[in-house]
Amino acid sequence: MLKFEYLNENKKRLDHFLDEQIKDVTRSQIQKLIKTSKVWVNEKNEKSSYTLELGDQVEVDLEDHKTQAELYPVDLKLRVLFEDEYLAVIFKPHNLSVHPGNGPEQVTLAHGLLHQFSSLSTGFKPDRPGLVHRLDKDTEGLLVVAKTDEVQEGLKLQFQSRQAGRTYLALAWGDPKNSKGSFETHLSRHPRQRLKRASVDIEKYPKAKKAITHYDVLAHGPVSLWNLKLETGRTHQIRVHLSENLYPIVNDTLYGPQNTSHLKGEMKALTKKLGRICLIAYKLEFVHPKTQKPIKIDLELPPYWKGVLKKLKPQFRFVYDDEFNKLF
User: Which residues are catalytic?
Assistant: First the structure.
């Protein structure tokens, strides 16, 4: 997503402005983007002839201009936890985008899927072979991959209707009063910081999407351990919900702050040891679109997660031992 602010006091047509700002897209492509509702001015779709005024906010979605022809197989040695002729469940590593975006060209999970599987669905977008849902670049964990368009559509409907289950584990700063609850807000792009999302007033931001996260806190202390189940799956949803409630995820450089001055040296060292955002998608549930059998995948936590949790346990103020011990 590209975002611009119109800073000229002289008025200008929307299409002419975009032609000046986006160098790698032709005028006809700009017209198509506007006609297909891929351009917003102040969060509303406008015509090409719309006249921009000082302070107008313009957003452009260019993702459809990536094609599968730009993708090529890359051996990422992906870990496969389940596979049959119709679908697979894989582990997405940390620091890996799921598909190409608008930034500099880089290897993504989509490149790895082309190498890993001989057959992949192509039903959604050409640069997203096999993909049904996504994880943030910084987040590691389970993803389901479709091998046929029929299966992809069936899985898509389960995620859209909230029948598929996605559960995450997170380490976050702070000691919440409640051990169980839910966050429910509407999320939109942050009004001032383009890379972030934020909870907003739906009346002011009618395009904002409802976001619901259910949680159980498994361990309390200066750092707390959260089990989080998504009812919806919005971009950065868990990260925003925890941060806005003053429990930012450990090592999340985008949604900090990372104020650790009150922590003992040992706890600081342990949380930094993971070397990544402390958020992992570790449970996935859905119904197989072809066999109609329930599929439930529980990821065994990687050794670096287990090591940190074991060393943190004595420093937690309170631990729900039954649930905590299931992680090992």
Answer: 136
